Amino acid sequence: MNDELLAQDGPTTELKASYLTAEDCNIAASVLYQAYHDDELFQQILSFDSKSPATYEKKLRLLIREELASFWQSHQHIIGVFSGNNLIAVSCVQKANDSLAADRVWHWRLKLMLNTGMISTKQLIEKEKAIHQAVTQFPNCCFISLFAVDPHVQHQGIGRFLLRAIDDLVNTDNADHSAIFITQDKHCALFESEGYRSEQALTFTKVTGQLFVKSKVENG
User: Fold this and answer.
1) What is the pLDDT of residues 34-69, one digit of tens each?
2) What's the count of helices (H) and strands (E) in the chain, helices before strands?
3) The pTM is what?
4) Could you give the CA distance from residue 204 to residue 220 in angstroms, rounded to a whole number?
5) How many domains does the chain have?
6) What is the pLDDT of residues 173-186, one digit of tens each?
7) Angle formed by the axes of helices 53-73 and 103-115, to 10°?
8) Cα distance between residue 10 and residue 160, in whole Å
9) In this protein, which residues make up the domain named N-acetyltransferase (predicted)?
10) Is residue 198 domain-resident?
């Protein structure tokens, strides 16, 4: 855990948000894996087969590990919420005015083609490019690539706490917007309640999601 706090839930509580360190990344990968295991889009792209779930699970672990490594190596934001010393929520946030498609996509191509297959890699890159194209409509925008709360502690306000930490990050970056692509309707209400608005529908491999955007005016 980095000593630099992004948010703290009052002086008498243990909940706090901060930038993650390299030592936190293994736990962060576990939190992300649990949260995204049943995500329909990842299941489509990574060819989930209920008769052989281990293959999908291996690919998902690899994808999350490579995403974290890519964010870390390119000095993007990886933040987490801690309850005491326990990491319970994670988000990867792309800096404003920093291309989604440049070096990290080429980094993905090599490793993911070797480990998840050419078709899966092609679909992931197409997804990245389509989202990047949609996000460019909103200048100076931070993009939330991954957002996860440990399933064991969901529905306790932790996701909202993490979103408000992202608001602080957006202000620190002097960004004008923040955005996220959501494929599961059950998550939309949280983002809408925090000022995000659905701006565009995007479809990948038969899975449709919404690009939600929040302006800095709404960030307060």
Assistant:
1) 999 999 888 988 888 888 899 999 989 988 998 898
2) 8, 8
3) 0.85
4) 33
5) 1
6) 999 999 999 999 99
7) 160
8) 15
9) 131-178
10) no
